[in-house]
Each structure stands twice: as C-alpha cells, then as structure tokens.
C-alpha cells in the first residue's frame, strides 16, 4: 500500500462545539439549564434566594453561552449526530480526519452520548453506520479498506481494548504519521455490525466503577479509531484517500468530596482529573493561541492530550460534545464544562484531505511505463534489424561475416606488431646497457691485471674490484631481463605465425575482396616493420661509430702517453672534443695523473672548436659523424682485438623476427653478403630482405611490379610497399645513413 501524504491545500476551521443536556433522572433538585434556538445555553443561578436587587445589580450567577449546536434534554443521540456530526463523518470517507469527543463531568452522559443504548444508539454507532452506508453507495466505483482499533487510557497507561489481556502500550511520535500507539491492534472490518461487536467487546473490558455520581462511571478514557482507505477502481489515475475517525469517550471528572471515593477510586480520580485538567489546559492554551498568538500547549502533560493532539490542533475536523446535567446541584460542573466548551470554540484546526501519494505513485508507474515503452521500441528495432539480416542474401551475409572476421584479424595483427616493436625497443635498450657494462668490465679486468702485475696499490685494487662486482651484478640482472624479453618475443612470434596462418588460409579460401584487404594490411605492417628496422639500424650505427672512436683514441693515448693538451689537440684533429677526464687507473699517465676515460663518454654531433674552453667540460665526448674512424691509423693494437663482442648477440635479438627457420616469416633481416647498406666487407650490419616463396605466390603483383626504389628489389622485400610509399622518409634515412658512413653498394 502506498504511503499517504497530505496534499498542499489546507483549510483552517474551528472546533465544532455542541452542548448536550442530559435529562434529570434520579437527581433531586431543579432544572437550571435552558437551551434556546439550538445554539444558546443559559444556566440559571441555582440560588433562588437572590432578590430583585441582586438581579438588577448583576449579582446573579446566571450565565449564557452560545455554541454551534445546543441540544436540550429531549434530544436524542441521533439528533445530535444528524445535525453536528454527520457532515464530519462523511468527510472521513473522503479522506479527511475527524475527531469527536465527549467532554463533561461524571454522570453527565458522555458514555450515553458516545455509545448510547439500543434504543438511542450513540455517536460511535451512528458514525459507523454512516461510514458503511457511504461505502456501500460507492462500492462499485471504489475499493475500501476499513480498519478499527480501540484503546483506553487508564491511570496514564494505555491498553488495547480489542486484546483480551492487553499489556501496557507505549506512545510513539512518528514524524510522518504523528502520534501512534506501538503494538495497538488494528482489525480489518467489513461491516458496521462487526465494529459494533468489537466495540461491545472493548466496552466490556473497559474499566468502570460505581461512584456516588454514576453507577457505571467510566474510569478510563476510551478512543475508538476507524481508518477508511479508499481507492478508485478501474481508473488510470485513481486516487487513494485515507480518512481517520477518532471517537473519544472521556472518563468522568469528579471531585473527591463529591464522589465520596477513597483508595483506588481516589487514585483513579486523581489521574482522571489530571488528564482532564491537562486537556482543559490544552483547550485553554489553544483557545488563547487563537486570540493572542502563539502559546505553549501542554500536550505532553498526559497521555490523553498526546493522543488527542491531532484532534485538537492538527489535521482534523473536530467536534466537541459537551455534556451537561440540568440539575442545579451540578451547577459548578455544568458551568465549568460550558466555560471550556466556550474556550474550545476558539480552537482552530487545519484540515486537509489525505490524498494518497497516488499521484506520485502513478507518476512512478508512468515513468516505468515510459521506460518500458522505450525498451519495447528498442527491442522492436533490434528485432527488425535481425530479421532484415536474416533476409539478406547468403552471399552478402558471408561477405559481411568475412569482413568482420578480417577486422578482428587485422586488429589482432596490428596489436601483435605493436607488441613486437615495443619488445624489440626494450631489448635494444637493455642490450645497449649491457654492451657498455661488458666494455667497462673488460677495462676493469685489464686494470686489475695491471695492478696485480705492476702497481700493487691496495686501495686502487679494492676500488677496481668493488666496481667490477657492481658491473657484474648489473650484467647478471640485465641478462635475466633480456632472457624474459626474449621469451616474450618468441611468444609474440608464435602468435604472429598463427595469425599469418589464418591469413594464408583466408587467402586460399576466399575471394578477391578478402584477398585485397589482407594484402593491404600485410603491406601496412611491412611498412611499419621497415621503419622500425631502419631506426634500429641507425641507432646501431651510431653506437658502432662511438665505439670505433673510443677504440682509436685509447690506442692513440696508450701508444703515445701524451699530456692533456696534446691529447686534446690530437683529438681535435680527428674532429673529437674530449670533455670527460675520468681515467681508469691503469691508463694513468704519471705526470698528469689523469686521462680521459672515453669508454664512458657520450658522443654527439660536434659543432664548435675543439680547443674552445667551453667545450672542455666534464660531461661528454663529442664526435663528428662524418668522421670515418675505422680508416684512421690507430686501428692496430689490442683494442682491435677488443671487439664489440656482443654485437652478434645484440643483433640476434632485435632481428629475431627475421630468423630463417620461420617459414612463414615474410620479412627477413639477417647478415648477408647481399647487404645494400654498409660499405665495408667486415661490416657487422647487413640487411637481406626476402619474401617467402609461398607468400610471393599468393601475391602475384609482387612478382611483376618493379620497384621504384632502385636497388631494393621489390620482390625481395615484403616491406617494399612501405619503401615505395615513404619516399620522403626513405630518402632522408638513406642520406642519414650515408652521413654516418654507410653507402648503398649500388648507388
Ligand atoms: N440522554 C440521556 N437519556 C437517558 N439517560 C441518560 C442520558 N444521558 C445519560 N443518561 C444516563 O445517565 C447515567 C450517566 O450517564 P453516563 O454514564 O453516560 O455518564 P458519564 O458522563 O459517562 O459518566 P462517567 O464520566 O462517570 O463515565 C447513565 O445511567 C445513563 O444511562
């Protein structure tokens, strides 16, 4: 069931106050109450001894009040109900809250008014009949849900009158639902008779006692609450309304002296009076509030006032039925009741229909429906697409499937190539580092050997040994990392072979479209590979030249034992600027104590005077690329026997993809006499490019197309596509390679 929320529109109303006079019964005395025009109540001075003078001087105790309704002793409960209550009860069925309570002194007829008798049913019974009559009328259009609870407050303790042996119940203050009684039973009812049955049952459990003033005096305050939930049937935007009716029969107020009670009765009376006094105070405060503005309302002074809080000032249309006796002996009680009733007329409440969050809920449902409709549309569209796909001609479908398969294959191939490039780059860096390490290790070994043989300097020996250990550790770590890279490259190559196999299978099985797509993809990858290989070649050549320069310089220095200035001059003649003068001990020239350790120097393009002081810094060795060191006169001696010993290993890794034993490899780069780059017979670098025969068979145009790239046979390199279509880059590269000392044999 959705929760109910109060709508925004409020209507402020005042308490309806009706005064009902009970006929004289067993009391002795005279009738001092007059009801005029069903509104005015006059209570005569009970003292008959007042003379004329007292009356003209207004010293009489006669009082006159005007109320919404006033009922004389001959009026029945039905009269009261019809005129003052009925309209309020109808509101309950329309989602309004209502409170009807009887207020008066003990024996004044409260219970008689609220419950009544068989012949004169009370307001509770009449209200229930009205509710069920109204429900019956609207049963076809609306669904109703009626529940009922009945409680009593006795000695400031709440009991459930619908439970055989109710425990003490507690009040809860809920921000949404207001004051509620925790654990109070709420019974679903389908007829007025059922509620009357429950009412009788509850009344039989109610605490009553015989007092001097009333034989069956109610010792507790009783609250019957009926909740009516109403929902419109079969309507798209149905409303849910909830009305609540509280029918309250208060305990009798009495004075201990009058009731002649003691013990438990006295304590009951004290509590009853306390709660009634609290109610009276609330009525007083609420009455004042309307006249003088805000005032503190002591609801919390008793359970009764807390329960009646809503009825007194909240969302409720409230009727107070003040019951009075006609008897002169009840003058003070009657006057007291009339005073409070008069004050209660000022109390304002704010009534609002409890229209359920039906709108909110409906809007939720609406949103759900909207989103479901969108989903339905989407699914319909998807279904239509699928259906149209099914109706596509088998040949077209096959072509589409093929294209999508090729896209996946193309993507995977591209990833494979990218991975391989990354691995090769990483491996290259690693090997370059290890190359330096190994060179230094060799220097160190030489220096240590020299120390052991000639100098025997203990400190220098220790320093050399420690450094050697560091280098060895580095080499070992790098070797491990290198092995891992190698493994990854092998895996990458396996995957590439697998992809290649798929491509070849596709070529043999499929038509022209597939063939062309594969071909273009294939060539694109070849182009990427060529770029990579050239980049590697350039870097390798730079390194090679650096090593050559170092070798030559060391030979020069070792052969001549020149001083610093002389070395600089000689180096300058070779186009070299020496900037880092860190020497290894075995190379120390006695008179200078320092020599350049060029093994660790860095080389770059030389662009200024070798003798310039500015170039004499301790950071780098600069050389000119155009200088062909290998042609110098210092190539003899032991440095020539110190080869770039890891050179072949070095190449083997980043040329791994070109290994000969891969039959499916389409790009092969390996040492060969057919190298087109590198002019020296002893060149370590060569690049032979060939295309596997099976692949060439698959690509007819490769056999026939002549390469515009001159000496590079189109049929010899699957990457010729790249070479041919990257002229600008290629020319620049070749120029650069030429600059660094390599020349195409055939150029
Ligand atoms: N209008 C009436 N016509 C006939 N008898 C009435 C009427 N009103 C009250 N009585 C009788 O007066 C007596 C006291 O009435 P009732 O018990 O209703 O008073 P009460 O205000 O509820 O008293 P208490 O506060 O002690 O419970 C009862 O016997 C009741 O039958």
TrEMBL record:
CDD domains: KISc_KIP3_like. GO terms for molecular function: ATP binding; microtubule binding; microtubule motor activity. It holds the Pfam family Kinesin. One of its GO terms (biological process) is microtubule-based movement. Residues 14-347 form the Kinesin motor domain. ATP binds at residues 104-111. Keywords: ATP-binding, Coiled coil, Microtubule, Motor protein, Nucleotide-binding. It comes from the Eukaryota. GO terms for cellular component: microtubule. Gene3D superfamilies: Kinesin motor domain. InterPro entries: Kinesin-like_fam, Kinesin_motor_CS, Kinesin_motor_dom, Kinesin_motor_dom_sf, P-loop_NTPase. PANTHER family: CENTROMERE PROTEIN E, KINESIN-LIKE PROTEIN. Belongs to the TRAFAC class myosin-kinesin ATPase superfamily. Kinesin family. KIN-8 subfamily. This is Kinesin-like protein. It comes from Cephalotus follicularis (Albany pitcher plant).
């Amino acid at each position: 069931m959705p929760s109910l929320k109060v709508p925004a529109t409020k209507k402020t109303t005042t308490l309806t106050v009706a005064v009902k006079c009970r006929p004289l019964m067993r009391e002795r005395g005279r009738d001092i109450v007059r009801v005029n025009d069903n509104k005015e109540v006059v209570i005569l001075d009970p003292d008959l001894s007042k003379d004329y003078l007292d009356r003209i001087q207004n010293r009489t105790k006669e009082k006159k009040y005007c109320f919404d309704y006033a009922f004389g002793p001959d009026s029945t409960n039905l009269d009261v109900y019809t005129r003052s209550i009925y309209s309020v009860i109808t509101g309950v069925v329309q989602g309004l809250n209502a409170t009807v309570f009887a207020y008066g002194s003990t024996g004044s007829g409260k219970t008689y008014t609220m419950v009544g008798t068989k012949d004169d049913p009370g307001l509770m019974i009449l209200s229930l009949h009205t509710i069920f009559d109204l429900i019956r009328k609207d049963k076809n259009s609306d669904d109703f849900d009626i529940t009922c609870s009945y409680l009593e407050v006795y000695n400031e303790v709440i009991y459930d009158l619908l439970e055989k042996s109710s425990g003490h119940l507690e009040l809860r203050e809920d921000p949404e639902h207001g004051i509620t009684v925790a654990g109070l039973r709420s019974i679903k009812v389908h007829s007025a008779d059922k509620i009357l049955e429950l009412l009788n049952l509850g009344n039989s459990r109610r605490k009553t006692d015989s007092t001097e003033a009333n034989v069956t005096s109610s010792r507790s305050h009783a609250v019957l609450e009926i909740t009516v939930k109403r929902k419109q049937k079969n309507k798209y935007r149905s409303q849910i309304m909830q009305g609540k009716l509280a029918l309250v029969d208060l305990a009798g107020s009495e004075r201990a002296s009058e009731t002649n009670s003691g013990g438990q009765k006295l304590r009951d009376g004290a509590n009853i009076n306390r709660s009634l006094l609290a109610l009276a105070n609330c009525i007083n405060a609420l009455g004042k509030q309307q006249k003088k503005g805000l005032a503190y309302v002591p609801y919390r002074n008793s359970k009764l006032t807390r329960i009646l809080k809503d009825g007194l000032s909240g969302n409720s249309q409230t009727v107070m039925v003040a019951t009075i006796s006609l008897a002169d002996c009840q003058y003070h009680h009657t006057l007291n009741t009339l005073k409070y009733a008069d004050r209660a007329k000022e109390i304002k409440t704010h009534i609002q229909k409890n229209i359920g969050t039906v709108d909110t809920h409906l809007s939720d449902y609406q949103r759900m429906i909207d989103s479901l409709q969108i989903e339905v549309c989407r699914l319909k569209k998807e279904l239509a697409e699928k259906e149209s796909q099914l109706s596509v001609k088998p040949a077209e479908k096959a072509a589409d499937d093929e294209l999508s398969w090729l896209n996946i294959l193309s993507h995977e191939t591209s990833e494979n190539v990218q991975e391989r490039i990354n691995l090769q780059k990483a491996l290259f860096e690693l090997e370059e580092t290890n190359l330096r390490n190994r060179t230094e290790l060799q220097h160190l070994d030489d220096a240590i050997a020299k120390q052991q043989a000639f100098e025997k300097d203990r400190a220098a020996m220790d320093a050399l040994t420690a450094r050697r250990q560091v280098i060895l550790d580095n080499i070992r770590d790098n070797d491990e990392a290198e092995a891992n890279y190698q493994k990854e490259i092998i895996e990458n190559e396996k995957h590439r072979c697998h992809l290649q196999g798929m491509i070849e299978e596709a070529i043999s099985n499929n038509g022209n479209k597939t063939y062309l797509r594969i071909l273009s993809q294939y060539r694109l990858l070849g182009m990427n590979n060529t770029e990579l290989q050239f980049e590697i070649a350039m870097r390798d050549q730079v390194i090679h030249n650096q090593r050559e320069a170092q070798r030559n310089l060391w030979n020069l220095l070792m052969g001549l034992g020149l001083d610093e200035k002389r070395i600089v001059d000689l180096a300058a003649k070779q186009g070299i600027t020496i900037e880092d003068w860190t020497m290894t001990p075995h190379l120390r020239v006695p008179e200078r104590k320092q020599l350049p350790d060029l093994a660790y120097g860095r080389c770059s393009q030389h662009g200024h005077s070798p003798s310039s002081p500015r170039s004499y810094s301790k950071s780098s060795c600069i050389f000119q690329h155009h200088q062909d060191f290998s042609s110098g006169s210092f190539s003899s001696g032991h440095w020539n026997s110190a080869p770039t010993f890891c050179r072949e290993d070095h190449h083997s890794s980043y040329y791994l993809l070109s290994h000969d034993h891969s039959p499916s490899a389409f790009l092969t780069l390996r040492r060969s006499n057919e190298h087109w780059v590198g002019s020296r017979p002893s060149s370590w670098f060569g690049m032979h490019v060939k295309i596997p025969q099976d692949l060439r068979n698959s690509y007819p145009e490769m056999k026939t197309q002549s390469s515009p790239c001159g000496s590079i046979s189109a049929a010899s390199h699957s990457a010729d596509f790249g070479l041919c279509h990257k002229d600008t880059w290629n020319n620049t590269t070749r120029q650069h390679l030429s600059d660094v000392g390599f020349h195409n044999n055939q150029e």
